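Problem 3 from the worked examples.
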Amino acid sequence: MIALIQTLVLALDLYWWIIIASAIFSWLYAFNVVNPRNQFVGTIGNMLFKLTEPALRPIRRFMPDLGGIDISPIILLLALFFVRQFLLTTVLPLVA
């Protein structure tokens, strides 16, 4: 059971970095730092979008319009942090 919890924590940590990479990529894309017509850039952007959008869409649905500022990745990161800490501080001691 400990191995399962550690695997879940690792998956949460990897998804944490994917969300951060997606946010940074969206800034680079919005400010024309990366070439949007480059096939490699498009592939990376599409992959990051498909990995993060299913988790961000429900958050965006309930968030008020902040006029161009998207804080849904921050809310998702806070939720992931909460789940990670819950697993490590509450569930893991019960199993160990």
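Problem 4, a separate protein:
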Amino acid sequence: MKPLVPVQPGARIALGVAFFVVFVALWSLATFGGFVQKTFLADPVTMLRSGYTLLAEMGFIGDIGMTVWRVLGGFLIAAALALPLGVLMGAYKPVEAFFEPFISFARYLPASAFIPLLILWAGIGEAQKLSVIFIGSFFNLVLMIAVTVGNTRRDLVEAAYTLGVSDRGLIRRVLIPGAAPEIAEILRMVLGWAWTYVIVAELIGASSGIGHMITDSQALLATDQIIFGIIVIGLIGLASDLLFKAANRRAFPWAQLGR
């Protein structure tokens, strides 16, 4: 191994799979070996059996679909509003000076702290859960996009002005294309954060969703179902992350140059 030397695709996959194999082996050793009581940590086989029961007999597929819909809904609303505002803040410093203090303040506020207020304002329906995801995603997206757009190479900006581009043309033809690969990576990362917010929202006042199932299982001390729900979240998140990476590589192939 050498610092910053890339790993071949095959070796990367093998190393990633190897970690999961080691993790499951240690988990099996701890549970089957009697080091941890099943009340506190179910073994992998019991977890898989309970997962099959949840999917085949208890309608867990519907809970998964509801949670995915909430994540995508809240995230897409946040992204649709954050993208134009972030670009404007990155391009125009007076706009940044106006919005940045409040957004920097708001992004430190935990989304879960708003749940009591959101229940009062929007009830316990879908609007409340989408609002939690929106609050948790929007402010971070705006600030990260603004920083990325504002860090556009100045030589590109000067070259564009030398060629006679207008201010609007500079944003459309230089700033946005130059920042697009990093903005796509920002969206990928914040989508992962959105999953943490939806589970928190579903732990309170929900009648469906993965978080709701986990809460019910906790009351029954069903650690096998809790673990299965957590693993499902991780698998969906991993799948979305890989899809996002593949889409980014396809849309912005030049971003990989020099890496």
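Solution to problem 4. The longest helix spans residues 167-202. The two ends are 16 Å apart (CA to CA).
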